[in-house]
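Thread: "does anyone have the structure for this chain?"

Original post by V.I.:
We have the sequence but no experimental structure in hand. Need at least a predicted one for the grant figures.
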Amino acid sequence: MRFGYFDDDHREYVITRPDTPLPWINYLGSQTYFGIISNTGGGYSFYRDARLRRISRYRYNNVPFDYGGRYIYIRDNRAGCFWSPTWQPVRGTLDAYTCRHGMGYTVISGTRNGITAWIRYFVPLDETLEIWQLTVTNGRAETADLSLFSFIEFCLWDAWDDATNYQRNFNTGEVEVEDDVIYHKTEYRERRNHFAYFACSEPLQGFDTQREDFLGPYRGLDNPLVVERGRSANSITTGWVPIGSHHVQISLEPGESRQVIFVLGYHENPKDQKFDPPDSQRINKQTVKPIIARYLDPAQANAAFDRLHTYWDEILGVLQVETPDPDTNRMVNVWNAYQCMVTFNMSRSASFFESGIGRGLGFRDSNQDLLGFVHQAPQRARERILDLAATQLQNGGAYHQYQPLTKRGNDAVGSGFNDDP
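Reply from O.Q.:
Generated one for you, tokens below.
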């Protein structure tokens, strides 16, 4: 059975049906903010360290597989039915579907009952955020009255603790909602100076930050109560399970399109500027508001995508070959080079098969990976060599693996492996 094909002109792999044998994933990000995204919108995001700065939650042993990610629900307010252009999590029948995995971005498009939704996910260069550009088009002969619901489930930062320390985590989740932006600030008051945020470009009809209120009792992501009834609960979570969900209503005339932008991001404040006002416990948002406003602007979002496209033009343009075999050209000129840069960024520490919790960066692996991309980004290769050298121990040995955020080894893994220095 055929599930897709290579589009050489656009440097994309095109998936033509959502029910692939396993999730077929792509990687977002090129510097400090990274994400993993499947062909049905599944996956998670993190800042620098997939264990210690996990932004969104993902369950590896979930049923059905690849359940949880970056989701948009579209509800037909007249008919009362809803669906997801990414197929998951609703898994309703789509009249048309494509996923295009490109260089640092993924585009997923779905059509149902004359409504087409097109979503482009990417991480702008030099920013700690991701953009979801959603365009909804009415292909019907009559006006379409639609509700859009976004969804992301926040991780409580340390992915290992988040998956195990339930008695504590059910008491610590905390959010703020201001100017239609959802801020996830678990432990911000006590011992952190960083927070996550989830913003929308359109005026909201409502929002939710508590998973149980969004889903309803004994329900899953395939049939959330909020989406079914077409009305948010405006929940403010205190403990339990923090999420981010926006509710936007749009009315489209026949042939009309509307763009809605969502921005999910990570931000740090100076430790002496955490709160506003200073004697309060509220996040100082003055440092992040200009960033949010910039990327909720469609022109700025498009310009950021153009810069990302140029970045990959330059990276891949360092080495190009021309052989009689198109498959060899495709492998060497695009996909192998792309994979080498992804491996440099992740060092195998995060995927759909490596949870990002226990491994970190491998010392030998990361040194070896330099050979694959040094010609593409020599300055970054130099930085990685120095970074690795800085983790060596006084006796000349090294951690077998270490966390990129702390530069400390994983005690559970230990050292003394036959490929350690």
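V.I.: this helps a lot. The longest strand covers residues 144-157.
O.Q.: and The two ends are 46 Å apart (CA to CA).
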